[in-house]
Every structure is written in C-alpha cells, then in structure tokens.
Amino acid sequence: MNRVILLGRLTKDPEVRYSNAAEPMAIARYTLAVNRRSRREGEPDADFINCTCFGKAAEFAERYFKKGMQVLVSGRLQIRQYEQNGQRQWFTEVLLEEQNFTESKAAFEGRNQNQGQYQGQYNNQPPQQYAPPQQNYGQQQPPPPGDNFFAIDQDLDDDDLPF
C-alpha cells in the first residue's frame, strides 16, 4: 500500500499551470514544511515535501491556499527519474488525493497579522507595541469572533448531555 498523510505549512502560494490537452486541466504544485518530531543536533527542524494535485483540487488550492497556511493532505508517493546533462536525476513528490484546512480563516489571518507586529524592526518602521493578553483566571473568555467555536457552560451536568 502506498499512502502518505502529511500535516504541514505551505512554504509559498501554490503554483498552478494548465495542461495542453483538448480540455486543459489545472495542475497545482506546492511544498509543505513538515515538522520533525525529534531531531539530532545539526539537522533541520522540518522536511520540505513536494505536493502535486490535479483538476478541481488544483483549482481549489490555487484559490484558497496561501503561504504559511497549515493543511492536512493525503495521497501517494511517486518517484520519477530523468536524465539531465548525462546524469540521472530523481524527483520525489506526493500526488494528492485529499487536501484539507486545519485552521480557520480567522485564525490564519490573525496569526499573520500578529507576525506583522515584529516585522517593523526589519523594514525601518517603528515596531508596534505588544500588549500581553489579560488573564482572568477562573473566568471563561468568549472565543475570538469568526472561529465558530462556542463557550461550554461549566454548569452543565452529565444528565444534560445528549450522549
């Protein structure tokens, strides 16, 4: 069985091209940075896996996937070889069968907005002030808007649950 499941972040926006067939088909390619569970000293923290998808899945990736977004993909591993300048070259990629979001749009945009606070020191702009969130221990805080999560009432009894 040849099955690969990966959870990682896109290193850049997907690159989409169309085939030259009678009915052109979209072909999307992108790279996922997949964190390693453990590493030895001197080794990189992540592996960079090439992913390819076709048709509607490719159009979906082009439209909705952005650099830095965390996604879950599954497919099959394919290794191709070709000759270039008399030397044999190998290319490994995952041909995707499924691709899913693993974070909400609001969470992704919020994370990207927060990263912008620290970029001021690199682009000659004054950095924005960071204010740590206030903690009200023991009090339940409502979720940020747009995450589609609802606070759980702590006064619920097991008999109130439908399962």
Report on the architecture of this protein:
With 163 residues, this protein is mainly beta. It has a domain at 4-108: Nucleic acid-binding proteins (OB fold (Dihydrolipoamide Acetyltransferase, E2P)). It contains 2 helices and 6 strands, in the order ββββαββα. The chain has helices spanning 56-64, 105-116; strands at residues 4-10, 15-18, 26-35, 46-54, 70-84, 87-101. Strands 1-3-4-6-5 form a 5-stranded mixed β-barrel. A hairpin with a 7-residue loop joins β2 (15-18) and β3 (26-35). It is globular and about 70 Å long. The two termini are 37 Å apart. Mean pLDDT is 78; it is low at 117-132 and 135-140.
Overview features:
163 residues, mainly beta, OB fold (Dihydrolipoamide Acetyltransferase, E2P), five-stranded mixed β-barrel, 6 strands, 13% helix, 37% strand
Shape: globular
Count of DSSP strands:
6
Give the helices and strands as they follow along the chain: EEEEHEEH
Which homologous superfamily in CATH is the superfamily of the domain at 4-108?
Answer: Nucleic acid-binding proteins
In order across it, which strands form the biggest sheet? 1-3-4-6-5
Q: Unreliable stretches, pLDDT < 50, 5 or more residues?
A: 117-132, 135-140
Distance between the termini: 37 Å
Largest sheet: 5 strands, mixed, barrel
What is the radius of gyration? 22 Å
Q: What is the C-level CATH assignment of the domain at 4-108?
A: Mainly Beta
β content, as a range? 35-45%
> What name does CATH use for the topology of the domain at 4-108?
OB fold (Dihydrolipoamide Acetyltransferase, E2P)
CATH architecture of the domain at 4-108: Beta Barrel
Number of helices: 2
